[in-house]
Predict the structure of ABC transporter ATP-binding protein.
Amino acid sequence: MLEVNGLSVDYGSNRVVRNLDLKLNESEILMLVGPTGCGKTTVLQALAGLIPVTEGKIAQGGWISTPEKSVPPEKRNVGMVFQDFALFPHLTVEQNVQFRLKDNTLADHWLELLGLSDFRQAKPSRLSGGQKQRVALARTLAHEPSYVLLDEPLSNLDAALKDTLRWDIRDALKKAGVPAIWVTHDQDEALSVGDRVGILNKGVLEQLDTPEQCFEKPASKFVARFLGEASFLQGRIAGSNVETAIGSAPVYTANNAQELVELLVRPDDVIVSHSPEHANATVLRSRFEGGSRLLFAALDSGETVSARVSHELKVMPDQRVHLTLQSSHPLSALSQ
Ligand SMILES: Nc1ncnc2c1ncn2[C@@H]1O[C@H](COP(=O)(O)OP(=O)(O)OP(=O)(O)O)[C@@H](O)[C@H]1O
């Protein structure tokens, strides 16, 4: 098991990773997300042993790396997959995957499993981006790493390819039974593919939990907003419910729950109807999303909220609408 305690990394006087703790469970895929410059790549480089760390301990199997006694990358048995594929251009697909292997059985296994059998003799320049990334993954897995680090493996691919390849990568990692940390800036990718998601903000891991917990019970407004469209409405706790300007809903209450809270409302928690006589909000903007529209509306109470409606409902800016909070699951409330 890869275990990280109190990891901090500085570039000069700039601390870019702060006191990071995590344990990577067997066969687990942990997605690391966060805005640009928050330190995701730096964390991976530290875990691979490619950069010096300032404080903390990284341990895996038989080794422990500290700032005083760093374990070099070649002693960590780490596999890396990069966004630019990092293949040897002069070698064929097969030679890339077999590189430095004594026995080619696993190379054959992963070439076949990742759909590369027909391309064994091709040079990387002949392959599509998706195929190149499959070769990079096959090469990594054929070397039986103790853990795999993936740095935005899909960011150079088009949207349609991303969707299939993300599942193929997940399946391959699960079949190999190897734990992985996968860096992405794509929230959907993080929530759909990961067993757990870690949200990094300015070098600090703000939350590390299952995708459902991070989305439904975010540790902070930052996490809530980073993982999806989020509005915060003022609410008053009343037993197991919370009351807002657009109705009430069940709420998760913490031990220190206070009377007045900020309630996290996702667009799907709001029902929109045209009923001018009961209108309680004015549409500010409407964003077409294909199968649905995302509305941004100003409540008469002065707050703003977003709501998702069917694409068939043509709602225009300045239109008066009636919004109702509707959720059968508990919503998350942050103390004010
Ligand atoms: N070699 C370096 N020397 C000095 N500062 C660096 C170096 N590499 C990264 N940084 C700084 O460290 C911070 C974290 O960078 P990092 O690349 O880890 O972020 P990231 O979350 O991976 O960003 P992105 O999503 O844009 O790839 C940034 O402020 C960056 O400018």
